[in-house]
Amino acid sequence: MTGATTKPKRTRTTRKAGPNARKSSQRADRRGDCSPHISSIAIEFLETLTIPEGPLAGQPLRLADYQKNFVRGALADEIMVGILSIGRGNAKTALASGLALGSAMGKWDRQPNREIVLAARNRDQAATAFKFVVGFISRLPEADQELFKIRYGQRLEAEFSGNDGGLIRVVPADGKSILGGAPTLAILDERAAWEREKGDALENAILSGLGKRGGRALIISTSAPDDANTFSRWIDEPPPGAYVQEHRPPPGLPADDLESLLIANPGAREGIGASPEWLVGQARRAIARGGSALSSFRNLNRNERVSTEDRSMLVTVDEWMAAEVATDALPPRAGPCVLGVDLGGSRSMSAASFYWPESGRLEALGTFPAVPSLADRGASDGVSGRYLEMQERGELSVMGDNTVPPGPWLAQIVRHLDGAPVTAIVGDRFRYSEFVEAIDKAGLSRVPFIQRGFGWKDGSEDVERFRRALFDGEIRVAPSLLLRSAFADAIVLVDPAQNCKLAKGRSLGRIDAAAATVLAVAEGMRRKAAPLRKARASWV
Fold it and tell me: For domain 10-246, is the CATH number 3.40.50.300?
């Protein structure tokens, strides 16, 4: 834990203000701490410890910049909950364990009988943090070691008898085991991995107990697999009095991109955890294996919100970018065009993809309703200003108020073709009536509409035809941020028979353009593979 590190890509702090500030000050006085100096005392204490294990075992602990930033933020005045999201192996558990030890010893908390909770999904996982605590204790001066009593067995506890007493105890994710407690500090380790119901029950019990003694909570974890996870909600919607520090790279980058790897693993340059070379090598091995191995690497090592359960990427970023060519190198709009359409529902994106099977040219456009604005929508979807950038590039437009009107939108989409013939329109069969109305309003009633489903039957065939076309070099597209973003969020669910269907990798992900592209390319490849009909001979 030494030296300086890269600045985290996304670091947010939410502090409570206004009338509650006086209450927070009174609470600080009861703890016996002086808010401006708590973090300094904590950092100074941590750097008196000795690293208990690993390649640097026996050396003095030296905090990296990202670790000091978290200590300062989480222990700041009026902050009750500190949230840290970072890649695996960046010493987040060791850091939290050191803070637990300092709090138990009363280094900055003067309350008598201090109680520190180490909570995790199960006892074995919580034992990891407890092991760090015991390791730190074993390297303290002998006079301090004699003040500790370590208990193993059914209960894992470290009791400190000096300075009015302190107790560190392990609690698994069972809400009943913490009811009635009054912790002064709680560490919720690997929060994203907790079972939903039991985990939420334990968290609620801990947070309610913290209020009795003005305690703090540290919630630490690698990224959750989706936006619906409770840990994700802590990051995306932090309540007042919360400090958020998230080390997550922008989505859609290759798994072995070094700069983004170092965003998720800021300790790599400081000798904390894996080295940059190991991370790149592991990323390339995961890319070669694909599937769940790649998803797991992105989730755990790149700290991305990618699920690892019975799903995999539709195509990797590298596979998709192999189809991109310079604008002046695009093949012509030769032959008839297949139009794939994904009609957006209320407040969502509508997308269209244009595919010319004869030449392999692909184009895509997306449209959002005007409310909320693209800037606000980008903030709520966790992509910052990406939608505005797409609009500047001409890939994304705005139409309608709260919904995109299907008829006028489809007419606008067809004008993009500039007179090029459309041989078929492909869309979701469950939106058939809406498609018929939109096609009539757009003046395309003579163009056949092909109904396709997104379930296991049609979806599996379309996904495989699309993948085959991509891998065989049958798709050529200009660099498109809209498509890159869509394919970065597009995954496939796989059933036991290895059938797959398209799905979102993030609940807030926008895969509409990817869905439209799969429909258009799959239909184009079916038409390209169909045998040519010979003219019947006429006998006179």
Answer: yes
User: Each residue of 341-386: pLDDT tens digit?
Assistant: 998 876 689 999 999 999 999 999 999 999 889 998 888 887 878 8
Q: How far apart are CA 179 and CA 497, in angstroms?
A: 45
Residue 35 contacts residue 92 (beta carbons within 8 Å): no
Q: Does residue 12 register a pLDDT over 80?
A: no
The pLDDT, as a whole number, for residue 346 is 63
| 180-211 pLDDT tens trace | 678 999 999 999 999 888 888 889 989 988 98
Q: Give the contacts of 72 (CB within 8 A, at least 6 positions apart).
A: 39, 43
Strands (E), 94-156: 114-120, 148-151
Residues in Cβ contact with 506 at an 8 Å cutoff, skipping those fewer than 6 apart: 226, 227, 305, 382, 489
Nearest Cα residue to 245 out of 114, 45, 95, 399: 95
Q: Long-range contact list for 360-363, CB < 8 A, 24+ apart?
A: 360/331, 360/473, 360/474, 360/475, 360/476, 361/330, 361/331, 361/332, 361/333, 361/334, 361/476, 361/477, 362/323, 362/475, 362/476, 362/477, 362/517, 362/520, 362/521, 363/416, 363/477, 363/478
Residue 104 φ then ψ, to 5°: -65, -35
pTM over 0.85: no
Domain with CATH 3.40.50.300 in the chain: 10-246
Looking at the chain, which residues constitute the CATH 3.30.420.240 domain(s)?
Answer: 318-528
- Strand-by-strand arrangement of the 157-160 sheet: 10-14, 242-246, 81-85, 216-221, 185-189, 114-120, 166-172, 157-160, 148-151
Query: β-pairing, 10-14 with 157-160?
Result: unpaired
CATH topology of domain 318-528: Nucleotidyltransferase; domain 5 (3.30.420)
114-128, 295-309, 523-537: least confidently modelled range: 523-537
Give the pair of three-digit tokens for residue 524: 């184009």
Backbone region of residue 498 per phi and psi (left: phi > 0; alpha: psi in -120 to 50; beta: other values): left
More confident residue, 294 or 513: 513
